[in-house]
Write a structure and sequence with these properties.
10 helices; 2 domains; 24% strand; Alpha-Beta Plaits; binds alpha-D-galactopyranose; single chain; Ribosomal Protein S5, domain 2; alpha+beta; 343 residues; 7-stranded mixed sheet
Length: 343
């Protein structure tokens, strides 16, 4: 039988690079997304068509990842086999309107949608969405070689458009929160595209792992700043750790502010987060810094880089009634930038 499933893209409102360091993060589901139609086959062939590439691919379930766009689908189908949902390959048709290389989790959404479509194709009720998210992360970590955390897969497997997910990445407990009315989170692409496989994401992960080994903890977010300053870690590692500690606190403050409808505090936390990503985690690039500065200068309540860093998108909190004028002026000042969507 054919199975169908969808998954949204996500934008992270705040809490960057702490989902593999024990922190709480706050992604929101987007209205753009991916849909997958999957028909199991009796042998090990994988046949994929993808409208966004205007392409198709023929692969084998036994294939290693080769750096091709079709790898994520092969990895997801291998996981569907490991979970007992399929015994063999599949024909899959993908439709997506999530921009690639923008840091909006197109890859997590695709993997999650394939796993859910496989579950629907066989009419199974297990694994549940959380286990699907964990399986989708395994595809990234073990098959595609991307050392990402759990945020993206969790958000796209569980959150629905219009809600943010406060996710404790250590316990995997989460809360879905309504986004503020009369305000909008606008996602703008800087024009600088990036990939998690390009090495810089991994560099940061390695630096964080050094700090973990030094302090013998997986939870960088709970370290004391005094202990970090007094450590014999090298300067860059110390700054990465400071980002984790301060970013985690900003997320908790943002979650409280979201519940209280205090948009000024949300904006202040976003602005402080950007400075921390720029100076302590060193994951920003000049066009992004310029875009964030203009966004705030032209009236956003807060703005920051979002996602893995080194390019991609910013997210800005803007009053709904001022959005159009604000957007026209921001894009006018940054000809390479383009509007992606709103959360
Ligand atoms: C990417 C990764 C996530 C997370 C963010 C940075 O989106 O997939 O796990 O680490 O970067 O916050």
């Amino acid at each position: 039988m054919t199975g169908f499933a969808t998954a949204p893209g996500r934008v992270n409102l705040i809490g960057e690079h702490i989902d593999y360091n024990g922190g709480t993060v706050l992604p929101a589901a987007l209205s753009v997304g991916v849909s997958v139609e999957l028909a199991p086959v009796n042998d090990d062939t994988v046949e994929i068509t993808a409208d966004q590439y205007d392409m198709s691919a023929q692969r084998q379930l036994s294939d290693d990842a080769v750096g091709d766009w079709s790898d994520a689908s092969v990895g997801a189908l291998r996981e569907a086999n490991a979970l007992g949902l399929l015994s063999g390959g599949a024909k899959i048709a993908i439709r997506s309107n999530i921009p690639q290389g923008a840091g909006l989790s197109s890859s997590a959404a695709l993997t999650v949608a394939i796993l859910k479509a496989a579950r629907n194709a066989v009419g199974a009720s297990t694994p549940g969405d959380q286990d699907i998210a964990i399986a989708a992360r395994r595809v990234e970590n073990d098959y595609l070689g991307v050392p990402c955390g759990i945020m993206d897969q969790f958000a796209v497997a569980i959150a629905t458009p219009g809600t943010a997910m406060a996710l404790n990445t250590a316990s995997l407990e989460y809360e879905l929160l309504e986004l503020p009315k009369e305000y909008t989170f606008v996602v703008i692409h800087s024009g600088v595209s990036r990939k998690l496989t390009d090495g810089r994401y991994k560099e940061r992960k390695v630096e964080c792992d050094e700090v973990k080994a030094y302090f013998e903890t997986d939870d960088l977010c709970s370290l004391e700043q005094g202990d970090i300053a007094a450590s014999s870690l090298h300067e860059a590692a110390r700054r990465r750790a400071v980002h984790c500690v301060t970013e985690h606190r900003r997320v908790l403050a943002t979650v409280a502010a979201l519940k209280a409808g205090d948009v000024e505090t949300i904006g202040a936390m976003m602005n402080a987060s950007h400075i921390s990503m720029r100076d302590d985690f060193e994951m920003s690039v000049e066009p992004i810094d310029g875009l964030v500065a203009s966004s705030i200068g032209l009236g956003a309540i807060g703005a920051r880089l979002t996602g893995g860093g080194f390019g991609g998108c910013i997210v800005a909190l803007v009053e709904e009634s001022r959005k159009e004028r604000w957007q026209t002026r921001v894009l006018g000042a940054h000809p390479d930038a383009w509007f992606v969507c709103e959360a």
